[in-house]
Design goal:
Shape: globular
Strand content: 35-45%
Strand order of the largest sheet: 1-8-7-6-5
Number of helices: 7
CATH topology of one domain: Cytochrome Bc1 Complex, Chain D, domain 2
CATH class of one domain: Mainly Alpha
Length: 495
Amino acid sequence: MRRFLFFVGVAVLSINALAEQSVQKNYTDYCASCHGADRLGGAGPALLPENLERLRRPEAVKTISEGRIASQMAGFADKLGKDEILALVDFIYRPLPVAPVWGTDEIITSHIRHVPAGSLPDKPLFSADPLNLFVVVEVGDHHATILDGDKFEPIYRFPTRFALHGGPKFSPDGRYVFFASRDGWISKFDIYNLKTVAEVRAGINTRNIAVSGDGKTVLAGNYLPHSLVLLNADDLSLIRVIPTVGLDGKSSRVSAVYQAEPRGSFVAALKDVKEVWEIPYGATDFPVRRIAVDDYLDDFFFDPSYRHLIGAARDGRKGQAIDLDSGRKVAQIDLPGMPHLGSGITWEYQGHPVMATPNLKEPVVSVIDMTTWQTVKQIKTIGPGFFMRSHENTPYAWTDGFSSGDPASRDAMTVIDKGTLEVARVLRPIPGKTAAHVEFTRDGKYALVSVWEKDGALVIYDAATLREIKRLPMNKPSGKYNVFNKITRSAGTSH
């Protein structure tokens, strides 16, 4: 009997070993290129239990099977069987043998100063208007291009860290641009001299960054470890690490961080705790003011006064407006599907300020009156959108069909008349190829659209006539960011 049990045990161990080898191989083949061989993240987020607390296992099964809207996550139901997908889900919810650490010592050790601070000339090397430049992120081969916004000609193209995320941010004078990569690297690039001047790894998996309105401080928000990291903007040296732990003692990822220059503060939303944090950047000790919210916030944006924060959760169908002065919710907002509020824009409509945002799950743009917080209109679009943009000097707002799973929608740009709230035109820059992310020149006369493909392009339109002016070949161009519009906090773009 003992011999029999011994052989049964050996057989079970052998089966388990084969199953472990199989799931490891499937992870390597289908997941590691985006989420990292060590599950610590790359182009995609880290796949660890502490990062998956709000993703229930059935939803994880669905995500692996079908993919995820508004992301690069593909579905694998055609390549993996049901049992294999279940095994992958078990695998990613399994804790690592050794918990990853990235704290003060690791950040300081990673710091790279490529050029001594203040050693480069204060005048641009080029003749183009430095405030009408675009920084174009090309995700196809991890490069960025500095583009002349008057001639629409590239000035300089350079390699970036792998998988930039969250949009580059500028110094208040527009000279420097700061990048964050998914795997935590923060880079400072001198646009005048076309050089990367400093870098530091602020985390293992980073959400996004913000630059203070006085240009002195950079704040990085991390998924892993759960922290906010304050850096000196001059050279990216470390100021302080703030663990993101709620009042209830629960540790949390950071959903997003933005600067609120009129308030002199950074504002951060926590992903796993129902709190918003406001951190004044003029105070030497960077005190944290905690604001309790009704629901988790996956993204948010501000009204023009920066008094109100408007946010929503990815799995929610309602948004909330928070008065940052009082720290209280003032309204619940009707949103039919998770909005990409980081792409929210504002304008005046019939004497009232309105906000507008695409929805990731529904083919509509929600237009909300910011005095009453009531829905003005749900504008039907070709497909669910991800980015929405406009400019003070154009009558139109543009949104894409980027979140659609239908190729017939993903190639479309819906152009909306801001005065009538009607669809004015549907443009297809390259039929059958994904169109995304509009940005305007500093005067609002031209709109630039990304064709989000390896053999993609930037397509430039006259913003008044909607006639194509020029197209430039590019390698999967993603966002493009106009220096002037960003540093002046144009109502038509993200900040």
